[in-house]
């Protein structure tokens, strides 16, 4: 075995025994398996997760899958990094170690037991939340310990009274995990629990409101029947609470991401979209559209398109002076999906209002649509653009019509 590998771009040789035998990269969290061989933790965990039961180097069977941190080797690697700092090598941080499953079970038992003092239960939940935030491995371990059933019971233990710190901590921990269908049904089918969610989403604490919106989105996403989803989306206060969360993008950035996911999930229930409109969703979405990141912008535009299919929603969006210009500007700017949703929303608005048609033309929609139908965008986006072009023909300025007649006659294919 060579003493060192080929030099890297850093211009320094990494000692062979500092490299993981699986990834051949510098180890950041060296752990030793039952055969005595040392690997970087992510590499050996991935090896085992794919069904391998032998040591990658020796091929000997692994008697167990316990990973023991090799602190001595890790400190040697850190010292080597410091010694080679002049070559651009950064010192690897001391990794946080995964929590012992026994310790996690103990904390869950402490938090769930009504016989324990209130401060003890609250402290146990806070420690669990801290562990879940530290490492994905800890979240996986907590999830495997029947935690979700315990946390659901803690969140909804006193639905008839004011929420407590214990409820808030349990809620903050619960939303870190996806809920199984059975738990979603247990929440959505219980009127008291749904009413309690409506109370939490309008809480004075922004963190509680955002976490409750995250739970609402989880329950809606995990409910398999329209009837169950409607039990939540039919509550006015839930729409009002979720929309209000979106109005604080600067003061609480996480509110945007969670809020738009929850609002989109609510608006997927067709028969209750008017409630989102009544809660002020159209104005709020247009006012915050520029603040979303790419993925969230797509979801926001999809929500706008859904609400534009409702007469009241279409009217509300048309009444906002920035709606049409923003939608036109969005075409071909963010992503194919965003373009498709923007074109769909414009199609609904222009089909319902001559003023929206004139606003779209004034905002330069003609050029955008002609570029769109010639682009590599989705077929659905192109079909919407073609329908919109046909709808707007009478609104085009005369010079635009003259310059685009040949293109439209040859390329415009309207699906039936």
Automatic annotation (TrEMBL):
UniProt keyword annotations, A-Z: Transferase, Ubl conjugation pathway
Enzyme Commission (EC) number: 2.3.2.27
GO BP annotation list: defense response; protein ubiquitination
Any one GO molecular function term: ubiquitin protein ligase activity
PROSITE patterns: U_BOX (PS51698)
InterPro entries from the UniProt entry: ARM-like, ARM-type_fold, ARM_PUB, PUB22/23/24-like, RING-Ubox_PUB, Ubox_domain, Znf_RING/FYVE/PHD
Catalysis performed (reactions): S-ubiquitinyl-[E2 ubiquitin-conjugating enzyme]-L-cysteine + [acceptor protein]-L-lysine = [E2 ubiquitin-conjugating enzyme]-L-cysteine + N(6)-ubiquitinyl-[acceptor protein]-L-lysine
SUPFAM superfamilies: ARM repeat, RING/U-box
UniProt keyword Transferase present: yes
Domain spans labelled U-box: 13-87
CDD domains: RING-Ubox_PUB
Glycosyltransferase recorded as keyword: no
Metabolic or biological pathway, per its Swiss-Prot or TrEMBL entry: Protein modification; protein ubiquitination
Function noted in UniProt: Functions as an E3 ubiquitin ligase.
Protein name, per record: U-box domain-containing protein
Annotated source species: Prunus persica (Peach)
